[in-house]
Amino acid sequence: MKADKASRTSDVTAAMRAIHLVRHGEPKIFKDPYALRLTSRRWRTIIGNPLLYRLLFRTDLYGWIHPVIGDIVARTRYAEDLLDSAVRQGVSQYVLLGAGMDSFALRRPEWTASLMVFEIDHPATQQRKKKRIAAMGTPLPKNHFFLPVDFERESLAAALSRSSFSTEAPAFFSWLGTLVYIEKHAALQTLSDVASCAAKGSRIVFTYCEPEPLEGKTSSETFQRMLRATRRRGEPMVTGFHDEALLGELHRLGFRVEERLFPDEIRRRYFWNRTDGLTMLDHFRFLCARVVREERPALAV
Questions:
Q1: N or C: which terminus of the chain has fewer CB atoms within 10 Å of its end residue's CB?
Q2: pLDDT at 296 over 60
Q3: Which SS3 state, helix, strand or coil, does residue 60 take?
Q4: What pLDDT digit, counting tens, does each position of 253-263 carry?
Q5: Rounded CA gap, 219 and 212, in Å?
Q6: Contact at 8 Å (CB) between 170 and 92?
Q7: Does residue 167 contact residue 204 with C-beta atoms inside 8 Å?
Q8: Is residue 26 part of a domain?
């Protein structure tokens, strides 16, 4: 992604959530009534025109995208299911890493009344999102905060230190679909920052895949087409982790893995008995880890 450009992938992700709500069958895995208005005008035109949608998404041109949509809605459902449990256990802070066009603060007023919400993303992407929300005329809750940060150049710890984020209160972090777009050293630094900044007992949910599919090995045609599409947008997927190596890194950084879901498990949980054929990609995993380290260094500035 270019340093001064908003993420095009964030527009695509919002469009995929909108397609699931508007064009897919029941039951909905995840409902996002704001996604259509948060995506680009081009995507709004495609989704809102049944003939154009059928022309693109019922043919080979874009028909391959449906498993990508399944992955997007399933990972968001998974994260918010776990967030629901965390809030019931007393978590008072929610940090969305690489938030993109996520609409949580608009969708869930019953939670945002008492939950501090921090959206972390590239400054240009956040500016685009702010303009779209302003155009809706829908106010954001007072305890919602945009924190601009470029993960390749800036520290998550530094961004949090400039905010009202509390290192003493439990927090829940979600990092969905974006780890693969940053270099490995930046990904590990971000995980290290979470472990360092968050109170013991805080959790993070994120998605990842192994390196081989990103290198064109052992991956489906759908995954290969997605790789080509992200490269054309100037936002290539560059980082994967082998399962056991990632578990070792998380342990070293001060996390305990609480759950790891592989594609077959995700399908059983969220796609069982669907009649519209919706499924998900073969290569992404969902992981939830808890901060267990006893000592936390001071926030880096």
A1: C
A2: no
A3: coil
A4: 999 999 999 99
A5: 8
A6: yes
A7: no
A8: yes
Beta-carbon-side half-sphere exposure of residue 36 (alpha carbons within 13 Å): 14
**pTM of the full predicted structure?**
0.93
Q: Residue 215's closest CA among 250, 196, 239, 233?
A: 239
Comparing CA positions, the residue from 121, 149, 289, 146 lying closest to residue 205 is 289
Total domains in the fold of the chain: 1
Residue 42 lies in a domain: yes
Mean of the pLDDT values across residues 224-234?
91
State the CATH number of the domain containing residue 265.
Answer: 3.40.50.150
Domain encompassing residue 236: 8-291
Whether 296 is covered by a domain: the verdict is no
What pLDDT digit, counting tens, does each position of 87-138 carry?
A: 999 999 999 999 999 999 999 988 888 899 999 999 999 999 999 999 999 9
Nearest to 133 by CA among 254, 274, 35, 215: 35
Whether omega for the bond prior to residue 170 falls within 30 degrees of 0, making it cis, is: no
Distance CA 37, CA 43 (A): 10
